Amino acid sequence: MRIPLLNGAELRGLREIRVALEGLATERAAAHATPAGMPALVQLIEGL
Q1: CB atoms closer than 10 angstroms to residue 45
Q2: Does residue 1 fall inside a structural domain?
Q3: Does residue 38 form part of some domain?
Q4: For a Cys-Cys bond, which of 6, 16, 38, 43 suits 10, CB 3.0-4.6 Å?
């Protein structure tokens, strides 16, 4: 497998996409969060 070399503009573009996707994932997770799931979420956060 070959990993392509990226220039600065390409890396910035990928970062913009990643930030947008992470924001969307956070919004969707928050919309589906339940009180019952909070202990597991707290454990994940504390493990960071």
Answers
A1: 8
A2: no
A3: yes
A4: 6
Stated pTM of the model: 0.65
What are the Cα distances from residue 7, in Å, to 3, 16, 47?
Answer: 13, 14, 34
> Which amino acid would we find at residue 31?
A
Tell whether 15 is covered by a domain.
Answer: yes
How many independent structural domains does the chain possess?
1
Tokens found for residue 8? 């600065």
- Residue 42 tokens read as 């707290």
Domain with 16, as residue range(s), is 8-46
Q: Per the domain annotation, does 3 fall within a domain?
A: no
C-beta of residue 35 within 8 angstroms of C-beta of residue 43: no
